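Q: Sequence in, structure out?
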Amino acid sequence: MASTIFRSFQTHPFAFHPSTLLRRKNVLFYCTMRSAQTTQAATQEKVKPPQAKVSNLTQNKTLENALKDYEAVIGIETHVQLSTLTKAFCSCPYNYASQPNTSICPICMGLPGALPILNFKVIEAAVKVGLALNCKLALNSKFDRKQYFYADLPKGYQISQFDVPIATGGYIDLDIPVEFGGGHRKFGVTRVHMEEDAGKLMHSDDGSYSQESTFPFVLSINIIFFVKVINVCSFLQVDLNRAGVPLLEIVSEPDMRNGIEAAEYAAEIQRVVRYLGVSNGNMQEGSLRCDVNVSVRPIGQSQFGTKVEIKNLNSFSNVSRAIDYEISRQVLLHSQGQDKEIVQETRLWEEGTQKTVTMRKKEGLSDYRYFPEPDLPGVFLTQEYVDGIHNSLPELPDMKRRRYEKMGLSMQDVLFLANDMNVAEFFDTTITRGADAKLAANWIMSDIAAYMKNEELTITEVKLSPQELAELIASIKDGTISGKIGKQILFELLAKGGTVKGLIEEKDLVQIVDPAEIEKMVEKVLSENPKQLDQYRGGKTKLQGYFAGQIMKLSKGKANPGILNKILLEKLNAKS
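A: Exactly. Output:
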């Protein structure tokens, strides 16, 4: 076995590892292995045909002209990590950021004799997502083995679904934000299928994708091999906690034509799975990952161009930027007559350089050698089971947006409120308490949103309740307090809680609406500022704001603005 493991290693003369203390009988080998991928990449670099040097200005003009003659064809594969208590085929829990390799067992590691048992919550989540995406459900489906060999896949295969996925032929409706042109879009969904996740490769802190690491291989109690993979100095470790975590892969039709549409499609998928409660959809945690497929073709051509995949984009802005860069790269190659350099491959998005780079050549279906999973039975659903889940579905984002539109809200309001399920619920509860929809939307989108951003809180973490927001809006509307006082009360409620009526009484904030009382304040301020009064009557009418401010200060912000301004104008324009 040892000879098999180290067959391709080049052994160097014995050398002691500087940080290792060796006990008696310990033997230390220092071995190196040069990555075949690195060698291949270097060879390809050498034989790469020379490209004509074009100035940036000329290249930009060429690209700008060429983009008018080509259209992009974009599809997205979205991997959604399900929020089940245990993994897909074993009882191991999964908690993000837990200590590496602390949630593994013989089943999720694929050890001999270990048999998988399907978590029924995975099926329930798949049916929910399939119905939410308007798919046709397969009442009889099955699992398959997908063969491939990565360092983070301990079994050497992935349990997935191939030719009989659980859901097919759906679509998703979404609205493009006004700042990106607006409009309604409908994108097809090819399929939704269940599968398990792989482990996670952890690279060095500098983010390098290098392949050099030092690994101790303990082959017996007293023999340790230190294996060093040569490229650059960095460490590569494998965390198998994520291996076996349930995923849903959602494959779109190639219906998108630019980065904005693709990013909005991915954002809508995130909203849907969050509304359904099947996933937290957090991209920064890897709970939602997007692989995009991009090709370009001359406008009017029906045949697709060569497809390039961009892997594991971890933000919607990266989805948009990576696609737009890849479109430009492919169009430029077409315009320079180098379209044969566009090959079916997998590329990575480099955040630092804002470019895509080659990762590996893309596998074909034959490389995966699919066959039915022999250790799992088929998945058989009854129509009664499906109908029960369908009847339990919540109001989904698109349905909520259409309802908000009927209330007379602008598309900007609609998109903001429906984007977060908890914000939408807060808004809905506020208007059921009698608040005007537009006024409630304005308060939520302005002062409340600004407070949450500054304090880094969510709507569920603030102390303000929907009932008190409705009460605040009513108190301003009926003249009990002014809008300015309302804002003071709002921030008090957001930070400390309480009731609107209680704060009004406690701080004596009831608005002054008695004209006689306000008139006395106006006369007092005018008599104390004769110079400014003469200047106003001499033509400097902007001083009205100065007087109004002084009166509000005298009233401690409680004077009714409408009554105040009416009396003030009468006094200012009166003949002396």
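The two ends are 109 Å apart (CA to CA).
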